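User:
I study polymers; will you set down one protein's sequence and backbone structure tokens?

Assistant:
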Amino acid sequence: MQVVSFVLTVVSAALLVLTLRAWRRDQKVRPALDGVRLVATVATVVLFGALTGAPTPIGLAAVAVVAGGALGLAQGRALAVRVAAGVCYTSRTPVALGAWLAGIVVAQLGATLGRTGAVELGLAVSWFSAGMLAGQLIGRAPKLSQARLVAVPAAVFVLVVALPVGGGTGRAQAQELAACPPAIDGVAVQ
């Protein structure tokens, strides 16, 4: 297991170096691919939580999504957007790069603390990453709209927020929620 961990650390470091070397390069905006990426990220977290039963307190998952969303929003709002031949491109500005790096640091710190047993995070780091991706898509949306490219990621962000709050953070929360009777305006419905 230590070999796998070492290999994954080396691969992560190499990808980080490559990303930092190409931080100013234009990236073509592909809303459909962005949506697939976000849905796949959320689905992976939900599936992993269901399969492993990783305990993640609902409040912690919600805080992770909101914190990631806020950082992603800052990153998305700071992206540079340009249109060439009817195609929309984004590139990171220094502020967007800083927000992205802050997200990497928070995610790595959280993962390290979770692995060492210093704190029980469950899937909170994964929810943070999903929130950050959703926030970035929402943050860049006004600039893309100004560039005459329609992007509507807000509904997906609601999905990302609704899932952890709705119990998609592990078996324990799903069982806990299943045991609760449905309620309307705080009154139990039988």
